[in-house]
Amino acid sequence: MEPDLNILIERCKRNDPKAQSEIYERFSSVMFAVCMRYSHCRDDAQDTFQEAFIKAFQKIDSYNGDGSFEGWLRRIMVNKCMDKFRSKRLTIVTDNPQIYQEQEQELEEEEVELPYSNDELISTIQELPDQYRLVFNMYVVENYTHAEIAESLNISVGTSKSNLSRAKAWLRKELKKKYVKTNIA
Hints:
Strand content: under 5%
Distance between the termini: 50 Å
Order of helices and strands: HHHHHHHHH
Shape: globular
Number of strands: 0
Largest sheet: none
Structural class: mainly alpha
Low-confidence stretches: 90-97, 99-112
Helix content: over 70%
Mean pLDDT: 82
Oligomer: single chain
């Protein structure tokens, strides 16, 4: 870890507002991007982002230098996003192994490369239904296993797999629609 980051963290542990501001400035764009991926809109992402940073500063004493500070902060952001979903009493689509297998087969047959920008992809991910967006981000972006997702969300591994499969199918469908609209116009 960078020596100046260590110093900033120690100062934050003593509730130094200037150090908190510097850490906020250093990590805000990356952490806001994490919240945007999990949120339906910018306002929701902003709320979650602010709440997560407040929590990080309240819990900064628990950071002991093991692993990267950015990773520690990212975990707080992701957990706060998951808390938001739980507070909405999110209904997660239940497990049906036959549907999961059929969807996977359809996806394999449907592999198509479409030209789209990162902004288009992010905005399309934000349009995903909540339960699909949550599992998609945890699995694809944060590299959680289906077992970890299942444990975090109190669902079965099969439900996690099914929601991921449905998210991918939904994204492909929506991206194709956007691609067709762009090329027709």
